[in-house]
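Figure S4 source data
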Amino acid sequence: MAPPARAVGSAPLASRREPTDLPESVLNTISQARAPSTRRLYALKWSVFASWCATRGADPVSCDISLILSFLQELLDNGRAPSTLKVYVAAISASHTLIGGQGVGKNDLIVRFLKGSRRLHPPRPLTVPTWDLPTVLRALKGPPFEPLLSADLRSLTLKTALLLALASVKRVGDLQALSVSPSCLEFGPNDARVVLKPRHGYVPKVLSTLFRAQVISLSALPSSERDPELSLLCPVRALKIYIERSALFRRSEQLFVCFGDRTKGSSVSKHRLSKWIVEAISLAYSSLGLQCPTRVRAHSTRGVASSWAWYSGVSIKDICAAACWASPSTFTRFYNLDVPALQARVLSA
């Protein structure tokens, strides 16, 4: 079930950055410029900084830039990643008074500090998948996921969410934005394909992404003599069955809805959808009597799916278009994993 709605936090004195003579309704509209999840994250980071300043008798809203740098250095010394420091800077900048007419995030010393932290601690993205795609796909062809028509609602939901994540190479937030409304969902003749669109008004994580005007178009996987069970992994088939089953209790136009008793049929959060994808991978391993690897993340589906596609001969242009990456360097630097497809092909030849 989706977790209960939480109050949207904000930095205690964030409004001091805005003119005090503005009407309350205007200030409220300005506060909505950031997504609720971003405001919650900023509130959490700001509270850490505010508490740190309180122990030193400093005002977190107007303290000197040297104190902010000392705070960031302490975080870095304690093992925080440079990317985490960047979030702290953004949260502090949202509430701190301007320094020399600039926000904290644009201060020259802060900019150089963040750049130096990245040089000292360069990111080390994973190069080996945390879980094995062929193993998971093999499990999805058997119980408790199949037969899909008679599978329990939980297994049906988990399998559909995982197949859609793998086939679309989209972020969890993009998957949550999908809708079953007629303007956003359309199956082709004989269910040979499906077209999905984000709900109206959806703002993607990266504003420059083409996903705002892009659709997800998936073709059905037919059975073949080489692999008669291939159709069991068809995302179009899973979506069709899931939508028909969920229509009996659906209370939201969001594609994925909760299947628990208390909130059954209501919209699902991004956090819960992420857990479903991880649960699907874990259930796949356990159904084969295997121990699920640790550190499995829902976001890993983007790297696993795109890496297997790359090593299977899909062009980098098509991969970037599907994943909404503006440049192949994004795939190369952060998502390209060492999958055994290429090695197996060479050895088998």
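Figure S5 source data
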Amino acid sequence: MRSSLAPGIWVLRAFSRDSWYRGFILLLTFLIYTCYHMSRKPISIVKSRLHQNCSALEPINYTVNTSDNSWCSWAPFDQDNYSELLGAVDNAFLVAYAIGMFISGIFGERLPLRYYLSAGMLLSGLFTSLFGLGYFWNIHMLWYFVVIQICNGLVQTTGWPSVVTCVGNWFGKGKRGLIMGVWNSHTSVGNILGSLIAGIWVNNHWGLSFVVPGIITAAVGVLTFLFLIEYPEDVDCSPPQHHGGPDEDQDNPEDPASGSYGHRENNLETGASCSKEPCEEPAAISFLGALRIPGVIEFSLCLLFAKLVSYTFLYWLPLYIFNVAHFSAKEAGDLSTLFDVGGIIGGIMAGIISDYTNGRATTCCIMLLLAAPMMFLYNYIGQNGITSSIVMLIICGALVNGPYSLITTAVSADLGTHKSLKGNAKALSTVTAIIDGTGSVGAALGPLLAGLISPTGWNNVFYMLISADVLACLLLCRLVYKEIRVWKAMLSRARGSSLALTQPR
């Protein structure tokens, strides 16, 4: 007598071949960008070790001048202007990243993504490790750390346009906000892993805080070369359907610049079967052509200020906790991960809400409005106790990173496959690079301003962050207004249909 089929096999058979490939690509790209962010985080953890008050520590040898409170710091960051020097190291990476991002999308459209991503990860792992090797090689020259950060910033621009393009190639618009909200948690997961890994060695051999993430990043680069699949057609899977039929505009009463950044689609996995006939490749879109897509400029400028806030927390939060709450460097790094836990929650919430309402701009605007008072409260009462600190960090992380997550993922993918492009999905990499590149300008400004302002008091840093959040919200007002008009038109049509059905014939 033959036994029934194993329950696990029933589960495996419940998913189609296309679903398994899509799930695999989602997991691999998640892992790829987790590594990119993991390699960026250690510098924020190690800052408190590069310059610290050494008066409470025992001298390591009899030649140390114990009247110098910075004898245990790492030169050249043992100077009184250490915050400006650390800010310069941050901005070497961030400015290079912002400049390189505008170029990266152009290369991403014209080169095979598998080669492009693999090379970027290998080089990123190399430069991250070289920063840490400065500890073992006993390097104390500022230019060394600045040059390494510039190189790392440039090669890390290979990541974001490439992974968003790859995911956009595999997934249609249906439930894109939810899927990308969950998928974009790689940013926070990478930050958490980077903090935890760096925290292991920060008080002893801080160079390993960089070397270990660098080796992991390079290893995942090898996996990317071996397993990444750029297009569903490459493995005989059906491509997603990015655009609707000729009646698409009937579902969207507004123009292409309305709140709906593309049409609606109810099934994630729909799509016609891939034609095996050779077809002409669409031309890559120009930079100015991408800027003309409705919504690109507004969301790009909004992301500039949203990312300014997010990256200021990314680079300065552990030092803020270290100085204000007086935790150790490791404890401050571990506590700062709660901000990223909140970021995971906020990204998923933003995706679900924007999918349900079809209002990307409105979702971002509301979360940005709520983030401003929460940052104010965190600065004033967040350090009164461990419980309040944990709760406020999670809430602030959700509200700050939610809009940032939504814009860099679902909104970028929506705009990159906008119906005005008439099916030319090759615009996706350029659009993503423009939006994230503009946001990266803010990411460079935020930590720089924090380094310049923090000597005058942390309150002023938070006032700067709150102002940036309000500006980000204001930049979306036009798009929010258009989304409200779309909702009103849809509601009017629904009421008209209901009245027609209730009238006697």
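Residues 62-66, 243-279 have pLDDT under 50 and may be disordered. DSSP finds 18 helices and no strands in the chain.
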